[in-house]
Known about the structure:
The protein is an alpha+beta fold. 16% of the residues lie in helices and 55% in strands.
Amino acid sequence: MGTLRNSVHLIGRPGMDPEIKKFGENRKLAKFTLATNEKHYNDNMELVQETEWHNIIAWGRTAEIVEKIVRKGRLMALEGKLQTREYDDKDKNKRRVTEVVMDEFMLIDKMSNEDESKDSAE
């Protein structure tokens, strides 16, 4: 049996602008959701589109780049790994969340003129 690898590849659109959190002087975390779509035919031979939402996080330099260029609705491809963690919610109930820890990404669609003017102003 070969090496087992935790690898995720997604193409989709962010459902929100990234939320950025800072830890200490130099550490950043970027969080957003990504929608992916699958199309298939149901039992009545009707084309159905299903949307799946993925929780995406990025750390460090990747988070800094995400903060500058990722925006709601822009088509992107990403690579990362699945991570599941547990936490206690405000009512002390155990919750479990699965996230994609993004290592690399690429924007697929072109910037709009509005996006270009924002980037050049920064």
